[in-house]
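Tutorial sheet, problem 5. The two components below are modelled jointly, 777 residues in total.
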Amino acid sequence: PSQCDLLCSQNYPLYIRSVPTENELKFHYTVHTSLDVVDEKISAMGKALVDQRELYLGLLYPTEDYKVYGYVTNSKVKFVMVVDSSNTALRDNEIRSMFRKLHNSYTDIMCNPFYNPGDRIHSRAFDTMVNSMMMQVC
Amino acid sequence: MEQGPAGGSGPAAGTGGLLLPLSETEQQRYSELFSRCCPPPEAAAGGSSVGELFRASQLPPDTLHQITEVCGAKRVGYFGPAQFYIALKLIAAAQSGFPVRIESIKNELPLPRFMALKNDTEVRYGTPAEFHGVKFQVPHATLEKNSYKRTDEGDKQEPKSPPMSPICSPPSSPSTYQRIPLNYGYGKARGGLEQQHGAPYEVRHSTHQQDGPSSGSYGAKSALTCSTPNRSLSVEREQQDSSTQYSDDPWRITEEQRDYYINQFRSLQPDLNAFISGSIAKNFFTKSKLPIPELSHIWELSDVDCDGALTLPEFCAAFHLVVARKNGYQLPETLPETLLPEYLQAACLKPIRDCALFDSYSEPLPSSQQTRDFSRTEKSSAEEVPDKSALLQDGKKDDKQALKVSTTLKTIPKEFQHLTVKAAAQEPNALRARPRSRSYSSTSIEDAMKKGEEPPTPPPRPQKSHSRASSLDLNKIFQQSTQAVRSGWLPPPPPALPPRPSVSQTEQPSEVELHPQMNRPPSQAEENSSAKKEVVLAQPPSKPARRKLRTEAQGLETPELSPTINVTSSLPAVKPHLPVQKQSSKQKRAIQTAIRKNKEANAVLARLNSELQQQLKEVHKERIALETQLEQLRPVTVL
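Model answer (structure tokens):
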């Protein structure tokens, strides 16, 4: 079980996908609490250059059941991923690559002139990408 | 009505196991109709009579198309008994007001009504009371889209909608049935997207028929292309393009449609090889009054390289999807193969390619002239398609890069513009979806810039002299001034800085400036101070910050003045080595690059400035703290 969240700079969600769909409320709660950690990490890297390395925030914090990973783009759009702690096979590099794929898909959505930044994301291509990604995680 | 499984299962067997319950009356009626349409020796219904029959049902052409599609005749390519029966059921359903779907024929339906059939004793079938007299108008086929789409096709009665193509693509099918082309003419809706071809198509069909399973699709589709006015032209073209063009597949673009799309593209963007930006395309497609999520999806499907702009093939695909959607087709999840830009560029730009290649071999033409050529030669035959395709393969990437550069860069100096236009002229059709064209464009710009830069960069000098000289003039001036000034300047190495003109090229100086800030080893400081002196001497472009740095550096390194003076004396020797080969034509380019470097340097300096300010504040605080401490301590010591 895992969840993938996409939140905009004002911290409201643009896209939420959970696999499987139960326990969604708990996922939402976890993501919301992790936003504090994300903000703290963002403010900490104040003056340094924001490059790819620093976009990936890494393991935000581990709870008893889940691990939460964060990633922030240059426009302060945050990606949060909650994965089950039992997924010990999931390595940091894999998480990084997943975030990279998410970022790429997000930029593709941005290229769509019919998409207003700040809207919920309804793109089917994005959905399929996220689904395939989460399938391989769970 | 009772079920007639025995009667229904027979013909139903051909439709892939769909059980079609037919009542006795229906069975009888259908078989009568079928026998009328289909002469006994043949096993499938003749297209013309079927078409007539369908027309007589007075359903709108798009409904009839849908019926054809649903009943499987499109799929199998002919009207076998199964397809025919299903079609009749669907007609009945449509006439009763049900949607044309397989499910609706499972209901109990009245018999279909056909008006004005010749020899028709069964004109008005007796129908139960539920049958409301539904009289569909003869094809209305006017969509809102027409108002903004169709401007030029009205006179031609073009069958524009391949989605509505009745033609079949016969895949492997029961060989027992004779392949008879499926063409029926629906009423022509002028200006409509669902116009269908009439009987003329049979003629064309017969020429292309019996191609065999694999090519049958192409041959059949050929009929779809043009309506009667263009028939001769299109027949030829079909024969040539049979392998690429036509099909019943709603996702193929016919010639008329393509021409129309190209015209629309031209109205938005005169250069056929350039892009339509996202906002322009958005406004255009919003006029189709499709809901935004659907338009968003269409864009997702058609913008294959995800660059936020539509090339000509992408635009055609997007337009085609909009057309299909307006005609009731559901949008696919992924882009159909026939709408891929690679596919479309081969088909779409063939005529353009022909004339463009002709042009290119003579001389590079300006793009406007080219578009005129395109429009002239758009209808040219496509015999040379295979030759051109080979040529296309070669410079594709380069052309795309060039094209992207030409369209994305607005501030390219004229030399670049000429270059890119020429490249576009030679291979305008090398447009293909690229995975990440953004990176391409940026790298190509940089490459172009760099290539332009590299020849002019001066050879490395022994010291990190200011070498901002990418312009010959400055070098000359510097040399002259150094010659004259050398003797006078040497003694006071750190003079008051004369006001410097704010000229451009600051490649080296920016690097030079950074050094004292980053680290101040004596050697580098030496160079820096010497370079700065040069800067001072030559009155090169400068920034105020550099002045400050220079004074700082000099203040810190006064003991090293003498070695620096020696250094400066050796510098003029280096000056003659400055690039003399600069021509004035490259100055502009150099200036551009220098401007860019300047900006980068500006950014760096600004950041450094802010950091230094912070450090300064901290230092101030420390100083204040120390002073207070001192004051606290002083009375003690004094006392």
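Marking note: The radius of gyration of chain B is 38 Å. Full credit if you identified this.
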